[in-house]
Design goal:
With 234 residues, this protein is mostly helical. The chain is built from 8 helices and 4 strands. Helix 4 packs across helix 7. The longest helix has 31 residues. It is globular. The protein starts with 26 loop residues before the first strand and ends with a helix.
């Protein structure tokens, strides 16, 4: 495969390959950082009974891992390594573990009938856990698709794990389009609401497995929380 940078010139008569298949500038750091910070804020506002004790522990671990990632790539994600990749995946898994604990505690309380009797509070708590779940899977999709953001910037892999519309119809996309964190968050959010792929198709088996798991978790959370809230209001 022939790679060029954003500033390189294509030989006369040769069509420029799509940006997502070329060596390009790394993705800006701010979007994924903002998502993690938002998750930390949500975790700190959850009821203490739904969080891993002490309540500050998991947010502190997550912020420490985030700072390590920022130190390695402060502005744009361009330099990758095994340690950097492990740290990024570790961050997503730590957030996932903390949210899974919260979800299990919430579901157990709903089944036993010990969870809050205030419908508004229950919906807010369930919504916070659901939104955190969407961010977690967005991070996983973003970290795993074609080797992660650093590998995508280097154009290391041709075959995508997720097929975006712009990849199928490059003539309808800007010339330098390539997937960024927001695109993966959109994928995660729509999968959480529709419980199935929408306009982004999973290609590899691991991508299908992750989307299947996300749909199952989202469906379980929504059904139990909404059913309990309706029962309280009724």
């Amino acid at each position: 495969m022939w790679h060029v940078t954003d500033n390189a010139q294509e030989p006369p008569g040769r069509q420029l390959s799509p940006a997502w298949r070329r060596v390009t500038r790394g993705e800006p750091r701010w979007a994924s950082t903002a998502a993690v910070v938002a998750v930390v804020v949500i975790q700190l506002t959850l009821p203490a009974r739904l969080t891993v004790p002490p309540q500050w522990l998991m947010p502190a671990v997550e912020l420490a891992l985030l700072l390590a990632l920022i130190a390695a790539n402060p502005h744009r994600i361009e330099r990758g390594s095994a340690a950097y990749r492990a740290t990024g995946l570790g961050l997503a898994l730590v957030i996932g573990g903390a949210n899974a604990y919260s979800a299990v505690r919430l579901v157990a309380g709903l089944i036993r009938g010990t969870e809050t009797s205030a419908a508004g509070t229950l919906l807010l708590t369930g919504g916070a856990i659901w939104l955190t779940n969407a961010v977690i899977f967005a991070l996983l999709y973003w970290e795993l698709d074609r080797g992660g953001p650093a590998a995508r910037a280097q154009g290391e892999r041709d075959v995508p794990d997720f097929l975006f519309v712009q990849m199928q119809s490059p003539d309808l996309a800007p010339p330098h389009w390539e997937p960024a964190f927001f695109d993966y968050f959109y994928l995660s959010f729509t999968n959480s609401t529709a419980f199935s792929p929408t306009d982004v198709m999973p290609v590899t088996r691991w991508a299908k497995a992750l989307m299947l798991a996300q749909s199952a978790v989202s469906l379980l959370t929504v059904v139990l929380v909404v059913a309990r809230a309706v029962n309280i209001l009724g």
